[in-house]
Structures are given as structure tokens and as C-alpha cells.
Amino acid sequence: MTTLAHGVDRNNLTINPWLIAVTVALTTFMEVLDISIANVSLRHIAGDLAAGQDESTWVLTSYMVANAIVLPMSGWLSNLMGRRRFYMLCVALFTISSLLCGLAPSLPILILFRIMQGIGGGGLQPCSQAILTDTFPPAKRGMAFAVYGITTVLAPAIGPTVGGWITDTFTWRWIFLINVPVGIISLYLTSRWVFDPPHFVKQRLDMISRGFKIDSIGFALLALGFGGMQIVLDKGQQEDWFASNFIIAMTTISVAALVILPWWEMRQRDPMMDVRLLLQRNFLISNALIFMLGFVLFGSTVLLPMFVQTMMGYSATDAGMLLSPGGLAVLCFMPFIGLMINKVDVRHMIVFGILSNALALFLMSQLTMQADFWSMATLRILQGIGLGFLFIPINTTAFADMAPNKSSNASAIINLSRNLGGSFGISLVQTWLTQGAQRHQVDLAAHVDTTSVQARTMLDSLTAAIHQQGAPVIDAARQAQATVYAFVRQQAMLLSFLDNFRFLCFMFLAFIPLVYLMKRSAKHA
């Protein structure tokens, strides 16, 4: 296969690169969607399979752990097996395991099939991005990453809405079964249009001819490090973090493995994870920025629906619909941003994206329970526009100076950074939300006591109003106290939500200096 400016030549047959882009984007969208689509169905899964709510969360954890283990080593597996072959194997495994998940008769079997699904899904994102990188010349990668960005940014935004609608309209099993026809179509299109480029084939043949040793220790370190980290992030809040011996043990194992991993991999000829790539300044900074993007994207995607459901009584479907306008903004602006990528300094584009997101999050930190749907949806649109100005320039910069034979390894690392950012974001904002509500409740309760004139006046007024409705004085006083307590809890939770939005805003702004540590691209030097 020869990469051309206007097409890809395979055995004298010119294949339009956009056909390849759509093919790999289809599968990536399916996989990223599957990460978030199951969240809203856990209650239905637990009820149907006679399992507890805590047990059902392993449906998510098992997938994410398997995904986190395979993702960083996907570059090595691509080099060993051939990227096209490995990609098709991942699609096939993901599709078959999706079918089995939809047919699972019990929770343990469902968890087993979710592990298989996570293994298959772990290779899809990095392979898709590497295929796009090799298919399009540097001048056109902006538009290629726009297509890829639509899948990876839009899918998490609409996942809860799609998952809720499917579960309410049909059954939770269809959130897995819908992957089957998509996977079959993707396999067919991939077999027709996707091929390994010549430099990749040569690299693989050289690797095989000189002989190679499987990096088994690197594999063990990756599995223990990233798998353990994912378990800690998924189960930490549920287990009360470091009050749990299980969380302490998993954290110790994970940290020890991740400390040893770079030292070990730097000494391997064919490492499972090519950490040497992080010695390139632009690639290292791009990974830090994409981690931040994942953190804030997934963190805010969790916070806003929780806010409107907890504080304003929105249904799960309505809360999901609130995210949809932001997803449409991403869909509309990504191609426009892809066209700009070769005309504007990417650093300025990234800063614009950060400022746009920071402004949206700051305005979210000013929300009240009287805010209407479209006021909040508009903020989500502003955030969606900003995400587009982050995703494409960050990825373009990461691969700008990357050697073609390193695209698979680089794609594995940068997708790992984004996924880890998302896992940290989801886990930590939920923890901060709970702890913040407890802290504010203590502060507010300190002002609601019998020595406070305002509190005493409020209690007396409520007691009188309830007594006038026919309740005995003693019961009326108790109901008044309960009403005040509920109001305090509500206000504490509101303040905690606003604190979290504000923290995500400041977190975005703190990364601006890092952007200008990037080297200027040759076009804008």
C-alpha cells in the first residue's frame, strides 16, 4: 500500500482515504459508546440477573480493567501480528463478546464476557488512530483527526441518552446486541479497504527475522500497574478509599508496578510499551494535555446530569438530552477545526479550547436550581466547541514529528492517557462531590441551632404553618426540624456541585502555561 495525497493505492486500485476513515471511525464510535452506554443500565441488569447493585458495578469495572491492560500494549501487538490483522481480531472479539453479553444468563457469566469485550475493545482506539495517521499525509491529518475526534468526543456525550432509551424501550440486553451488526459491517469494510503500509510491513518482517523475545515482565507490569489502577479508581469511592485494606493493597501493587515499568521498558529492544516516545517534548506535553482533556470531559459529563437529576428532578432521559446539544456542536465544528489546523498555530487553538471550556465550567459554577434547560444546554454547546479545539490540535501536534514506524506505539500511549484521564475524572469528581457535600453540611448546620435568631424564627414559622394544617404541635415541630435539615442537605449538595465545576475550570486554566512549552510547528516557526 502506498499513501498518497488523494488516495491509497492497493494493487493498482485507488482507495479513497475517507472510506478508510469512516470504516475505522465506525468501530471506534461503537467501542467508546460502549464504555458509557452501560452505566445507566446497571439497575436493570442487577434486577434482571438477581444481583446486588454493588455486584453489578463489576460489569463496568471488568470491562475497564481489561481495556486498560490491553490498550498500552496494542502497539506492540500490532507490530507483532500486523496492524490490520490485529485490528480485525479486536473487532471480531468485540463483536462476538457483545453478542455473548447480550445473551448472558447470569452476572458472573456477563462479567466474564465483559472482560473479553474489554480485551477486544482495548485495541480498537489506538489501531484506528494509527491507521488514520498512516493513511493521510501530514497536511490532511487535521481533517482525519476531526473524524476520529467526532467518535471519541461525541460517543461519551450521547452514551447515557442512548443507553437509557434502549433500556427503557427494549431491554438492557440490546445495549450489547446493537454492536453485532456494526461489528460485522466493520469487519467486511476493513477486509476490503484497510491494509498495512509498506513501512509497517517492512518493520514487522525485520522484527520477526531478527528474532524477538516476548516482554513477559513488561506484560506483567502493565497488567498489574494499569489494571490495578483501574480497579482502585472504579472501586475507591465504594470501598471508602484508603479505609479499605483492599484499596490499599491494590494501590501499592499498582504504584510499585508503574514505578518499575519505565525502568524496565527502557532496557528492552521490543518493549510492550515504548516509553521512549515520551522523551519527545511535544509528545509528552500532548499526553499531559489529553489526560487533562479526558479528566474534564468525562468528569463534567458525569457532573451535569447528576446535578439536574439530584437538584432539579430531571429524569435520566432528560438529563441525557441535556448533553446532546454539546455533542451536536462537536459534530458541526470538528470539520471546521480540521480545516484550520494547517493555517493557525495549534498552540493558539489549544488555548482557545481551554478558555472556552473554562468559561463554560465557570458559568456552570454559577448555576442555581432555577436554571432552565436551554441555559444549561448552551453552556454544554460552548464546552463542546472548546473540546473540538483541544482534541484535534493536541493529536495533530503529538504525531507531527513522530516517525511513521512509531505511529502504533504512539497511538497506544496517547489513547491510554485520555482513557486514564477519563477514569480519574469520573472517580475523583464523585468523591469530591460526596466529601464536599459533607463539609458544607457541617458548615451550614453550625448556623442552624437554637441560639441562632434566624434559625429559631424559621423553625417557629414552619412549625406554625404545619400546625395550622392539622398536625399536633409536637409533630409539627419535628416535621419543621426535618424540613430544615432537608434544606441544609440540599444546599450543601448544591454548593458541592458548584465547587466541582469551579475546580474543573481552574484545572483547565492551570494547563495554559504547559501549552506554550510545546515547540512551534515548522509551518508557524
Question: What's a concise summary of this model?
Answer:
This protein has 525 residues and is mainly alpha-helical. The protein has 21 helices and three strands.
Topology of helices and strands:
Elements: E1 2-3, E2 8-10, E3 13-15, H1 17-37, H2 42-48, H3 53-56, H4 58-81, H5 83-103, H6 107-122, H7 124-135, H8 141-169, H9 174-177, H10 179-193, H11 198-209, H12 216-235, H13 245-265, H14 281-312, H15 316-340, H16 346-364, H17 373-400, H18 407-445, H19 453-468, H20 473-510, H21 512-515
Task: Please give a structural write-up.
It is a single chain. This protein is mostly helical. It folds into 3 domains: 1-212, MFS general substrate transporter like domains (Growth Hormone, Chain: A), CATH 1.20.1250; 214-268; 278-525, Up-down Bundle (Growth Hormone, Chain: A). Helices cover 78% and strands 2% of the residues. It contains 21 helices and 3 strands. A 3-stranded antiparallel sheet has the order 1-2-3. Helix 5 (83-103) packs antiparallel against helix 6 (107-122). The longest helix is centred in the C-terminal third of the chain and has 39 residues, at 407-445. The two termini are 33 Å apart. 48% of the residues are buried. Mean pLDDT is 80; it is low at 1-13.
CATH class of the largest domain: Mainly Alpha
Q: What is the CA-CA span between the terminal residues? A: 33 Å
Strand order of the largest sheet: 1-2-3
Main beta sheet strand tally, sense and closure: 3 strands, antiparallel
- Beta-strand fraction estimate: under 5%
Domain tally: 3
The succession of helices and strands, N to C, reads EEEHHHHHHHHHHHHHHHHHHHHH
Give the low-pLDDT segments.
1-13
The second-level CATH architecture of the largest domain is Up-down Bundle
Structural class: mainly alpha
Q: What is the CATH third-level topology name of the largest domain?
A: Growth Hormone, Chain: A
Helix content: over 70%
**How big is the Rg?**
25 Å
Q: What is the residue-mean pLDDT, rounded to a whole number?
A: 80
What's the overall geometry? globular
Number of helices: 21
Q: How many E strands? A: 3
